[in-house]
């Protein structure tokens, strides 16, 4: 099997969105709405760095697309298209079949079309570029938080980092925490609902404190967060109670939840959204004018969030 037959067999699916020309030519050709803006992001996942070496093909496929979808969620964008560049150490059809099936499953769930990419031989790595759309001027940004905004996060924080910690220590993570590490759930639908509610938003990938700090820097504001308010799963809560290792929660990363700020006048809208949709949303702090991030709680240790270099 050569590169072109590989693409045709595993990655040339029927189109989910309207493209003028998709997989199978030198470039994709895309029609867009006149009143929309395109938003795009790209991430690379490398074996042994972003996922354990023994991770299944299905889990790798899910995470590779999900982490990119999470970036679209943070902008309040509607997913439209993605490209895939994959380096494979060898051509294993069972692996490719499993990878392709899960990638297609997740892309169908979020109605995002694979429109092109590249394959090559090398150490296992997956690069995905996602493209979404938002109404003009309506994208959620990092630079628009205001003093007095409440800070919220979705779902729970720290589960994926706890799974990584256990793997590094030669232990077997629970099914729930391992799922959070291998199969994060991008908050696409929440992000779209926040467009008319939140002032600023970011997805939590490298650690809550570090990613929140990106909002503070871009918005030229500060924040005060209450450690006790950060939503934790029962498993992570038990670990914190026994270790007081809050660094795992606030700097561990791999959460792929949303952190966003909401002005007082929109809190009722947020509460209504939560009641109607079932989204789990927790207030963890407030934006202030200090231009620094401070914590409330019995923990003053400096934590190092994930650094790519």
Defining key terms:
six-stranded mixed sheet, four-stranded mixed sheet, 309 residues, Phosphoribosyl-aminoimidazole Synthetase, Chain A, domain 2, 12 strands, globular, alpha+beta, 60s Ribosomal Protein L30, Chain: A
Low-confidence stretches: 19-25
- Assign the CATH topology of the largest domain: Phosphoribosyl-aminoimidazole Synthetase, Chain A, domain 2
What's the arrangement of strands in the largest beta sheet?
8-10-7-11-9-12
CATH class of the largest domain: Alpha Beta
Biggest sheet descriptor: 6 strands, mixed
Instruction: Please estimate the helix content.
Output: 25-40%
CA gyration radius, whole angstroms: 20 Å
Q: Mean of residue pLDDT? A: 90
Proportion of strand residues: 25-35%
What's the name of the CATH homologous superfamily of the largest domain?
PurM-like C-terminal domain
How many domains in all?
Answer: 2
* Overall 3D shape: globular
Task: Specify the CATH architecture of the largest domain.
Answer: Alpha-Beta Complex
- Reading the helices and strands in chain order gives HEEEHEHEEEHHHEHEHHEHEE
Specify the structural class: alpha+beta
Question: How many beta strands in the DSSP annotation?
Answer: 12
In whole angstroms, the N-to-C terminal distance is 37 Å
Number of helices: 10
